[in-house]
Amino acid sequence: MHAIGIDIGGTKIAGALVDEFGTILRSERTPTTAGDPRAIEDAVVEMIQKLAVGEDVIAAGVAAAGFIDSAQSTVYYAPNINWRNEPLRATLEERLNLPILIENDANAAGWAEFCFGAGQVYSDMVTLTIGTGVGGAIVSNDRLFRGGFGCGAELGHVRIVPDGLPCGCGAQGCIEQYGSGRALLRIANSLADAGGIGLGLASARSRKGKLSGKDVGRLIQDGDPGALAALRQLGDALGQACASLAAVLDPQIFVFGGGVADAGELLLEPIRTAYLENLPARGYHPEAEFAIAQLVNDAGVVGAADLARKHVFPV
User: Fold this and answer.
1) Mean pLDDT by 10 residues, the chain (315 residues)
2) Which strand ranges, in their side-by-side order, compose the sheet holding 289-292?
3) Beta-carbon count within 10 A of 264 CB
4) φ/ψ (deg, to 5) at 56
5) What's the predicted TM-score (pTM) here?
6) CA 193, 195, 197, 198 torsion: positive or negative?
7) What angle do CA 170, 172, 175 make, to 5 degrees?
8) What residues contact residue 224 under an 8 Å CB cut-off, 6+ apart?
9) Exposure of 210 by Cβ count < 10 A (0-12 exposed, 13-18 middle, 19+ buried)?
10) Which residues does residue 166 pair with via DSSP β-bridges, in sequence order?
């Protein structure tokens, strides 16, 4: 019952042979040639073939950022790859003679957390991946939510600030502009400019010429007051968003992944506080749990493999 999971990222393609318990048995990595979709296709084919050598593989799942149709077959739009209405599943199945499933990368990662990570004991879960942007995944009644066209769960583009900051999606005020790693850097730079508690941030910036996510993460772990204040602002925005999402989705747990989630409870505490302050009918509405993702960098390949396996052998 082994399946292969492939996760196409902006800088690398990760692949793994995964068993039915979510255990990675073998893995591969290769750089992503972002400007050449045919080269990416070739790299995916080569990686699947390499991982399948000597194994009884029943299917492969390929996860990538972007809009995937409801049949998990066609890539409508991939922001980091020049795929537009790309029939990727048919192309790969023809080349590999193997059942293939195409999935959004955040959906794949969220499904892995639901099956094998922080969401295992729940039936309804929302995952928010806090990286450069904000990815999302929804599991409702033990099923991955994709929407009518397959493009659902783009939670980073739910608007939380009317006429707010412009977003790359074309809207304004999206969660992504206030709750992402990019937002954390913007807040940190603003605090560095203001002095006071931002002096540590300003010092780190002056040494290197600019702040990086790693700089801010290190200062957070060191207890720097400016970096912690930036994280609290970020957590407040995410907590408000979670309260709104709870009114619609009513999840039992919110799970947070991505680089910013390395802050652990330092991130969850302001999220939880803002969630409770903004939860509709607080005191009468059951309160969700909050957790940090457990699978970290392996979530995409594990989730893609498991979804492909379930595509071939539905439960």
Assistant:
1) 92 95 96 86 96 96 93 88 92 96 96 97 97 94 94 93 92 96 97 96 95 95 97 97 96 96 97 97 94 94 97 82
2) 143-144, 134-140, 125-130, 253-257, 289-292
3) 12
4) -95, 85
5) 0.93
6) positive
7) 105
8) 200, 201
9) exposed
10) 172
